[in-house]
Design a protein that fits this description.
Layout (H helix, E strand, L loop, with lengths): L18 E4 L11 H5 L5 E6 L11 H7 L4 E5 L14 H6 L1 H4 L7 H19 L9
Parallel strand pairs: 1-2, 2-3
Length: 136
Amino acid sequence: MRVDAEPARDVRDNRVKAAFAMAPGDIQGFGMDEAGLRQMTVPAYIIVGAADTATPPKENAEFAAKYIPHAKLDVLPGQVSHEIFDNECDQVGRDNYPDACIDAPGVDRAKLHEHIGNAALKFFDTNLNVKRQKPD
């Protein structure tokens, strides 16, 4: 099936001041090429698992980070897959959706979620000039 990227070629929205992309999808398949990515004017943080087979890093996250000015690429090492960005599952989820809920040995989804959350906070605090108050 051919995807028509034309409607998505001009998606600038002045309200968007920064972008945090987790395991970005079919970048090139949706018409995002080098010239288009170079036009991105807001800071971007792109994070992906090294073992992501749903959205392979080289063709997607790494490609985007190469052409987006000032993009930061964070590749989570090891057997970190696409599903790491999903919520943690309970036993029902693990029983019914093992591909989405059971990570490779040695992958700690909770620890990775903490890393991702902290990276997002730091990125947005820095790029949006947010001054968060310390808790009492």
